[in-house]
Amino acid sequence: MSDPTSATSEAVAEAGGGATLGKPRGLMGDAWRELRVRPLFWISIAIITLVLLIAIFPGLFAHADPNLGMLSRSRKPPSGEAWFGYDQQGYDVYARAIYGTRASLLVGLLATIGVVILGSVLGILSGFYGGWLDAVLSRVSDIFVGIPFVLGAIVILTSLNTAGQGGAVRIISLVVLSIAALSWPVAMRIMRSAAITAKQQDYVKAARALGASPTRIIVRHMLPNCLAPVLVYSTIALGAFIGAEATLSYLGVGLRNPVVSWGVMINDAKDYIRVAPHALLFPSAFLTVTVLAFVMLGDAVREALDPKLR
Amino acid sequence: MAEAILEVRDLVKHFPVTRGVLFKSTVGQVRAVDGVSFDLLKGETLGVVGESGCGKSTLAQVLMRLEPPTSGAALFEGEDMFKMRGPALRRLRRNIQIVLQDPYTSLNPRMTVGDIIGEPFEIHPEVAPKGSRAQKVRELLDVVGLNPEHINRYPHQFSGGQRQRIGIARALALRPKVIVCDEPVSALDVSIQAQVMNLLGDLQTEFGLSYVFIAHDLSVVRHLSDRVAVMYLGKMVEIGTEEQIYEHPTHPYTQALLSAVPVPDPTMRGRRDVIRLTGDVPSPLNPPSGCRFRTRCWKAQDICATEVPALEVRVADHPSACHFAEERAVV
Amino acid sequence: MALLEVEDLHVEFRTRDGVARVLNGVSYHVDAGETLAVLGESGSGKSVTAQAVMGILDSPPAFVTKGAVRFHDEDLLTMAAEARRETRASGIAMVFQDALSALNPVFTVGFQIEEQLRVRRGMSRADARKRAIELLDLVKIPHAAQRVREYPHQFSGGMRQRAMIAMSLALDPEVLIADEPTTALDVTVQAQIMDLLAEIQRDRKMGMILITHDLGVVAEVADRIAVMYAGRIVEQADAVTLFRSPGHPYTEALMASMPRLDQKGTELNTIKGLPPNLMRIPSGCPFHPRCARVQDVCRVDVPRQHNLGLGHSSACHFAEEVVGG
Questions:
Q1: Residues 17-56 of C with CB under 8 A from A
Q2: Domain count within chain C
Q3: How many domains does chain A have?
Q4: Is there a domain that residue B236 lies in?
Q5: Which of A3, A8, A19 sits opposite C62 (nearest CB)?
Q6: Which ipTM did the prediction report?
Q7: Minimal CA–CA distance to B331: which of B207, B239, B246, B211?
Q8: Whole-number percent of chain A with pLDDT over 90
Q9: Which ranges carry the ABC transporter domain (chain B) (predicted)?
Q10: Which of A226, B104, B267, C187 is 20 to 30 Å from the Cα of A303, by its Cα?
Q11: Any idea what the CATH number is for the domain that residue A89 is in?
């Protein structure tokens, strides 16, 4: 009661008791109220919405054919006809950046879903049951953490994703799986520590005293209270995985023709950076802005969900 | 004399202290509860007092079967509750409930009050058919003195005292026979504390409940308890009626504990029998041999270091675990 | 002239949800060699007042909007920053409730005491160490010369609180503010610490402000008592008078709602309702919605302090009647 910060928060909490008179509202409702007034949140939402629209309906944004390469217009700088110019192969950079959005986003999204599901399930089981299960899962995750991401991905992809093999679906799935396989331990650790905290809460004790089953405790009591940090992580991870796709593609082990993505474009442009910098600049800008938007969203959500930062 | 509803016999709970992660080795035992026996009679309140580390909260956890005991037995209506499985255990859960200390962490912040108080019915659907649950929850809110309209609110919209009432309503939902109250008022302000204590008293009369009332505040315990047990480092050192313990304490620890409680009367200053213990409570990881209180006791003799004093009647009609038990009024 | 005087202190917390008026004109003083107890429940503003005196309020959200804190007749709130720091550091010290979080876990207890002595007193390392051991001795920590080298986590709860008291005494303060110093401790340890504080206060003729919610503790050590409610002092009196004939219904009700060790009660008297929301403090007397003696005037007029003689004052319209029983 008397250390300064807690006394302050206590007085604020006492003062905030005004909420008692208002409408019923969950913690998510509170978070939403918090988010609603943040410009950063709206900016990132606007960018993400735009990017999503581009990914779903690329035809609305670009009329040129992204797969029409004409060597005659190779490396032409931006003009009224092609806003971002042409690359080495004579592809329209703008059209390709627009059509590449889908693959980039898809990889990020699928990898995030994979990581969050795998990491959360293992994390919550590990945190709830503890004991040998926790010990084994934690050690396995340590091993995965020990593998450097880029090296691990190169090893997996060079052996499985050999050039000239498979269609777009196989290539994308391989990249998604390799990112997910190397990143799940982070989500697991976040979930596990949240689960350990939640498990010690008195409401879990009360539920156990009522005779609630482990499934009920995990689903009703622990999961809703552990979701926030994973949610925050997933928004930031989504941005990071889009970047990871670009990195792997740049290194030549990620996505490749016939798939178009920002990473593929950066890879294509890297050898001509001096003569045609525009071919590198525009996909990089798309990538950077998108990643930034997700990181900003993650930050805003984290602040809204974490009452201590309020 | 009333019949015992709960008979605890020689209950022991040790927590192993381990080192290492994958290959654990036990390096010691925290002797949280170390051979505790008592009876809880029907309709009575048994107060359990003691300082931190005395094992009173562990006792609550074991009685609620939240932690398995190391050894010992507890008979609920004559049946050993530690041996119960399946349907018998479910019945036990309906009969023994708990009210926890911290009104802020004991309610799930993501659930509405209706869901929190209704959860017991979801776990034990045989108690209340689905259609009647909302009505039951409203009734419970009313019983504990909250507005039944607030059924859709979330815990953070309530004050500490109101939250504690919600916790009490949840414990009452299954109409238990015994409620273990683990420090139910210690987190509350004085003026709110009195409201919750009165509520607990009223509910006991109304529903014929038996309470195990665990607290560190001796005044609160005296107010609510019919009988009182004093614990120190995992052992029960003295047990008796409220009057025996407060007016005629015989164990030096009980006497010191009572003497340390400040009395809200400035005219009594310097006129009370003051016993001041030195030092803090020793660690339950490595308790003193013999009588565990001997390291802080002014009466300690050689025998105290070698022989564990049994909890038995020596003087003043009630059991006391001291080789040199003698009455001394300190309040 | 009082040693430390708080006059008409107003503090508000500006949060996104609105402005909470946490202190609404708090005045009290403490003289050398006396113990003033500030009694109140959570949210009454007792800790915030102390933090305003110490200048450790977090701002934002807290803002002092009015009032003065005078130490030796000099207003700390208007003083130049450096002078204020100097005055506070060597004149007023504070003991917190939670010694574990008030002591820095990465430094030894000795280092934390010595640091102040070296910075403020310019002592050498060796002299500071010697003084630190003396201080730990003074607060009755056994084997002080060894324990001075230990870290806070190696101390038990009671010993940690003693170490913090030693630390607060390092610069020989004239006023010691103890904010719930024993609330986190077991009752047998609490008694030891209260004895120690009282003894030190007597020996050094310090002024002590003891902030607490515990009527028992107050009755055992306080010379004078100030009762706070909703950011106001509702009653002030010497300890014996306050307990014998309280002059404010809140004080009266608080005493009646406390279970007592020396008697088995039946039903406790309670104070109905909840402490006020500081963003919407009730009109008139802030206690009126919970008061058993409420009259129409209480809902409209803010009661002024009624002087009941011999330093006894009460902010109740019917103070005289309350005292009369």
A1: 17-18, 20, 22, 42-43, 45, 47-48, 50-51, 56
A2: 1
A3: 1
A4: no
A5: A8
A6: 0.86
A7: B246
A8: 31
A9: 6-258
A10: B104
A11: 1.10.3720.10
